Amino acid sequence: MIVEVIVDVAAYPIDRPFDYIVPQRLETLVERGSRVHVPFGPRKVQGFITNIKEETDLDKSKLKEVHSLMDVEPVVTEELLQLSKWLTNKTLCYEIDALQVMLPAALRASYKKNIKLIDSSALEEDFLALFGKKDIVSYEVIEKAGLLRAMKKYLTDGAVQLETVIKQHAKAKTIVKYKVTADREFLVEQLNSLTKQAVKQKELIEWLLQQEQTTFTMQQLIERANASNSTVKALIEKGILEKEKEEVYREISSLEYHDKDQRFQLTEEQTNALTDINHAQEHAENTTFLLHGITGSGKTEIYLNAIENSILKGKQAIMLVPEISLTPQMTRRFKLRFGDQVAVMHSGLSTGEKYDEWRKIWRGEVKVVVGARSAIFAPFKDLGIIILDEEHESTYKQEDNPRYHARDVAIWRSEFHQCPVILGSATPSLESYARASKGVYSLLTLNMRAKEQALPTVNVVDMRAELKNGNRSMFSVDLADAVREKLDKKEQIVLFLNKRGFSSFVLCRDCGTVVECKQCDISLTYHRAGEQLKCHYCGYEEPVPTTCPECSSEHIRFFGTGTQKVEEEIAKLFPYARVLRMDVDTTRTKGAHERILKQFGDGGADILLGTQMIAKGLDFPNITLVGVLNADTTLHLADFRAAEKTFQLMTQVSGRAGRHDKEGQVYIQTYTPEHYAIELSKSQLYEPFYHTEMLTRKQYGYPPFYFLTLVQVTHEDVMLASEYAKLATDWLRANLSSTTMVVGPTASAISKIQNRYRYQCLIKYKKEPLLIEKLQQLIKIYRTEWIKKGVILTIDLDPSTIL
Ligand code: ADP
Ligand code: ZN
Ligand code: ZN
């Protein structure tokens, strides 16, 4: 018997299955989708069985044997095996990467390098000392001791040998239990033969005889039977009790809440939407629904109902939310409705906890998974519905190999399972809305808030005017007054600082002008080195101006503020306010998010100050004021999605206010109040925004009118980076269709990451039948030639950002 194995080596000539002989002892055990250890060159590596066959075209005598089988049952289902093939082609990754991404980290192998002692007489004393009494020492120990150079020499001389060992991550957690293995007769017999002194043992046997249960933990025996460690041991020796290990799931600790599940009479709009979804579930139609509903319109309630439906049919459901660990409130709603049938998967869990949740899904012990992006690979076998909440969120796209979008995977799986997909959002991505307009997706609309609360009143504050009036603070007079008023009323306030890490632009504080590229309609990016402004689309650059090109003001400078600075200012302006800050710094520890949110929800603070991470999911009745300190930041990102992202963010943030009985107020501070993204987010006017933005996209040739592929080249040497970027660009230009545009090469907006210079080119096309084939050829050139020069080439089909 022969198996085809995809080995855990991501390298070009190896990106295909290899044949191995199955030793007889494993013949009845091997299955497609199981992991194996196989010899590969001098090493042993992990791999996945993707096929089983009797014959091979290769010379059988040269084939190696499978070393061991790691799973008695496959870890990758037949469906996911097929999906991995599709993913490999769709994202141009190695097949092994596509397989690994579908599994929890605990099942991915990592390798440990060891150095084995061969000839001790050849070694210097300090090196030999590292081994102690053993003949193996880990690579890290040698590295720490600063003896890598010596090791290299010994390796060549053959005095030591390098060994790679596969290391497994988390294991199933087990607890020890004690089981009564003997029958009653034996117990009674033992009881009678005990000496008078053995009081404790007598008591324990008598107690055991009275129990129906046969398995106990030590704690139970101690607490309930008043036994001791040594008594239990004595009974084990007598053959009455036996020690055994039982697998248990790790308890995911959670804070204590006192809320209950609420069921509502659905609104008319909700009912209509559900009717369509039910129909698709009923008739096993793989319709993709775009559920467009304003904030607070009751989308989540629809999700809950659709999932319930699917459970009633004996099927399972995947519920994706962006960065779930950030919205414990959302998870709670699902746990309250479905209880133990819910598995949760997000980055806040430990490797072991994730493994446990994954096994519950795999074994069919749960019916729903609520999770972040990677939960889309949950190994359910009979899916009834797949839902992506906030479908426009860029976190659904993985920015690393394989560069997949969860939405694409969802649609693939829905075809496989013949079940519907729901994409939900108050502010759908332009791509999805365009597809819905064309009838590719089926559009469901919710125009009313579920509880019929009014949308909050939104005031846009012109910060240029504030400056003119001599107010240099981050708070406009109006916002500061509003904060004071709410503090007096003991209502809660959310302050949002719009912040996007590295990217910065130059802004005139008098007239709001942002310096842009004349050819690309994209803000120029500020580069501190050389005080330059650069366009990373076309390569145009100019020095940072000292006066505004529009109004000649000298108040022109690069823009960016941190939350800490805002916190200091709050302390000055509102000294009595209790402030909670939520940003990357305050949420580093496990569970910090949830703790901060809970503290705020419990009324532990007056003001919650935070970045993007507070924009979503917050649903507290006492929040009546939301202030956006700087709406412009995302607006001037050097990205064609800047306006879209700003509109989405403003709508989301405003949606946090007045969700319950009390009316909400929102203040948006900006230097460009007239921009349509800000103007239209005031009343959550999605459609007008969509149409305006589509005009810009059409004019400049961006999605959804054109598809994009981003090709990036990095190198430690700036000259080589730009040289190979040019090679790649020229090659693509020469090989792709003439209607396809290849723009570049140009320096990336983030021109250097981890000491590697970054250059890029952008492929824009409407139809390019050659695309995948040509990109594969380019990758082949890269993997066979360029890679040796230290170049790294990455290709992102449908990038979510092009920084
Ligand atoms: P969305 O997900 O669209 O922002 P939610 O599902 O969170 O909206 O609903 C907003 C609020 O309205 C929640 O507090 C929810 O409990 C409530 N709600 C949802 N559906 C109904 C309904 N049919 N009747 C009354 N309240 C509802
Ligand atoms: Zn440009
Ligand atoms: Zn100006």
Automatic annotation (TrEMBL):
Zn(2+) 2 binds at residues 517, 520, 535, 538. This is Replication restart protein PriA. GO terms for cellular component: primosome complex. The gene is priA. GO terms for molecular function: 3'-5' DNA helicase activity; ATP binding; ATP hydrolysis activity; DNA binding; zinc ion binding. Binds 2 zinc ions per subunit. It comes from Psychrobacillus soli. Zn(2+) 1 binds at residues 508, 511, 548, 551. Residues 280-446 form the Helicase ATP-binding domain.
